[in-house]
TrEMBL record:
Binding residues for shikimate: S14, L15, S16, T62, N87, D102, Y220, Q248
Enzyme Commission number: 1.1.1.25
Name of the protein in question: Shikimate dehydrogenase (NADP(+))
Organism ancestry: Bacteria, Pseudomonadati, Pseudomonadota, Alphaproteobacteria, Sphingomonadales
Family note: Belongs to the shikimate dehydrogenase family.
Span of domain SDH C-terminal: 241-264
Naturally occurring in which organism (per UniProt): Sphingomonas ginkgonis
Amino acid sequence: MRFAEVIGDPVAQSLSPAIHRHWLEALGIDGDYRASRVSPDELPDWLAKRRADPDWLGCNATIPHKERVLALLDEVEPDAAAIGAVNCLYRRGDKLVGANSDVEGIAAALDDTKLEGERLALIGGGGAARAAIAYAARRRVAALAVVVRDPIKAQALRSIAPHLELTLLTVAEADEAFDGAAAIVNSTPLGMAGAAPMPPDLLAALGNHGGSATLFDMVYKPRATPFLALAKGSAERRVEGLVMLVGQARRAFHLFFGAEPPADDAALRDRLATLTGGSAG
C-alpha cells in the first residue's frame, strides 16, 4: 500500500495522521499516512531506506528536522530554499524534493488579519519562524520584531527577507517586541503537551499587549493554551494551531496523493475536536 508519513522527535503528539487518513477515507483513496519517530542521528539512514521503498510517497518533517533534512534532498523548491527550511518531502520522478507548506498554513491562520503596514511580533527562530518571516514579507508588514534566545546566533534570519525591517530581541525584551503589534505569533513548541511551558516573562509581556493584538499560537495540543488565553475581546483575536496544521496539510496531501482534500470539512473539524478535547468551533 502506498503511504506517506510525518517524522519528528517527538512525534507521538502529531495529529497529521488523523487529518490525512480522514481525507484518504473521504476521497476513497487506497493509501495510508503514518507517524514515525526519527532522531537526528537516524535521519540519513532512515531516509535512504525510505527512498528504496517504492510504496513510500514522501513525508512531512517536523521538529527537529526542518532544517537538518535540507542537505539530504536532491532538490529544494525556490521558496523553501529562500526560507531555509522544509516541512514536506515528496517524490518527483527519481528525485526527492523539499517544499515548505508552512507558509500556506500561516496564511490560513492570518490572512484575515490586517497586517499590511502594521507591526508583527514573532516568538522563535526555528523552521516555522522562518516560514513566518517569509509570510510577513509577503504581507508587507511595516516591521517585524522576533523574540529569540540568542539574537547574535539568529542573525541569519535576516537573509529570508533582506528588505524587511526586522529586529531581534531577547526574552527579557519581549515587552518591547510586543508593543504596538497587530499580531503576535508563537512559532515555538513552548506550551505544547510534553514540551516546556511558556516562560512566565513571556506570558507577562503578552498580558500587557494581548488585548490589542491578534494572538496566533502554532501549538495545537492543547488547543486552549496559556498563550491564547491572554487574547481579549472577540474570538477572532485567537487563532489556534489547528488552523495552520490543516492549512499546511492541504498542499502536502496533494503532493503525496495527487488529489485535493475537501474544501470545507466539518467532519474533520469534529474529529480533531474529539482528539484534542475541544469544541469544533
